[in-house]
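Recall that a protein's primary structure is simply its ordered list of amino acids. Everything else, from secondary elements to tertiary packing, is in principle encoded there. The following example makes that idea concrete.
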Amino acid sequence: MTPDTIVTANPDAMTSSVGVETVILHFTAGTYFGLDEVGTRIWQLVQTRRSVREIRDTLLEEYDVDEARCERAVDSLLASLAEHGLITTDAPATS
């Protein structure tokens, strides 16, 4: 995944909030996934098509975290979500 990769939540994934955390169920794949508060925020952001860069930049505005750490966390979570079929990824649109 690159900063310009577009990510979107899989519409087949069902979510439920448990306090500040989120549980994601993907019945077709048989996947169960739990997210903490920041993971929940990322999940909220991928409900509409966004680039990895847009997600990172939003988190940098909302949380007190350095850019490198934020980027690693976003990349790691998005890779895991993609691996479990919970998000789709697309190449960026070309002009």
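The two ends are 20 Å apart (CA to CA). Helices lie at 37-45, 52-62, 67-83.
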